Amino acid sequence: MNDLPEVSPARNIPRHTAIIMDGNGRWARQRGLPRVLGHERGGENLLRIVEAAGDLGIEFLTVYAFSVENWQRPDEEVSSLMRLLESYLSRHAETLVKRQVRLRVIGDIDALPEHARRPLLETIQATKSFTGKNLVLALNYGSRAELVRVAQGIARDARNGTLAPESLDWENIAARLDTAGIPDPDLVIRTSGEIRLSNFLLLQAAYAEWYFSPVLWPDFDAACLAEAVRDYSRRNRRFGKAPALPAPAL
Ligand code: IPE
Ligand code: IPE
Ligand code: MG
Predict the structure, then answer these.
(1) Quick one: average pLDDT of 136-148?
(2) 66 ligand 1 Cβ < 6 A
(3) Which CATH number, 3.40.1180.10, 3.30.70.260, 2.160.10.10, 3.30.260.10, labels domain 12-142+184-233?
(4) Distances (CA, A) of 60 to 102, 147, 246
(5) How far is the CA of 50 from the centre of ligand 2 (A)?
(6) What is the pLDDT of residues 105-132, one digit of tens each?
(7) pLDDT band at 11 (very low <50, low <70, confident <90, very high)
(8) d(CA 194, ligand 2 centre) in Å
(9) pLDDT value, residue 69
């Protein structure tokens, strides 16, 4: 019998877990429902996952809610997603406050319609003093667009003479990303069986562990999250180093 203790997830929790919440449309289609109902169920599911993540001790939960590329969907779907965001915040902002979850965003939210942007900014403001748990919404987010914004800022500072090109390093670049102040994700989960990155946290996830689940997002429950965390906790992250040698026998 193997007498080594089982790795307890409690000992190796992904401090920052990011999720590509995919599969709402297929969830609805399987039931003969309009896609928007899939998004609605997906939104409700996020609330359970925020709760489950808190219970597991995950400090940062980032979720891909709307990508830069998602503007290319039919106008009707885009506007229902924006309305959903608004109603979601009006219904659940209080829960975030009650659970002491700090809401943050990554992505260019200036492009969001005012009716969605206003409650978003209000909720960010109302939760900004919480420190233990963070929910980061990726909205109008795409890694390449984020990198373009960073490059524009660097070019501006170099032209103004406030940035010497040779002083530029990764820390400086990371501080200009939308995720400044947020640690890199340890674990990135994608639901719905798709095995691609879709322009999500490409730089920040350089050393993240990936977990792909076949479950469609509206069905991805607390047990699915716990399984992903358990899987993560068994992995050996090396960051390019050689594996540790067993201690020599004395
Ligand atoms: C993810 O579900 C939610 C968003 C992208 C907003 P999808 O809408 O991509 O669902 P599928 O991939 O079509 O099933
Ligand atoms: C990624 O899902 C974006 C979000 C989950 C918000 P998509 O469904 O938009 O990605 P692709 O188009 O399948 O790559
Ligand atoms: Mg999809």
Answers:
(1) 98
(2) yes
(3) 3.40.1180.10
(4) 9, 22, 33
(5) 20
(6) 999 999 999 999 999 999 999 999 999 9
(7) low
(8) 9
(9) 98
The question of whether 184 is a catalytic residue gets the answer no
Is the pTM here over 0.90, yes or no? yes
Evaluate: CB of 20 within 6 angstroms of ligand 2: yes
Residue 239 C-alpha to ligand 3 middle, in angstroms? 30
Work out the mean pLDDT of the chain and round it to a whole number: 95
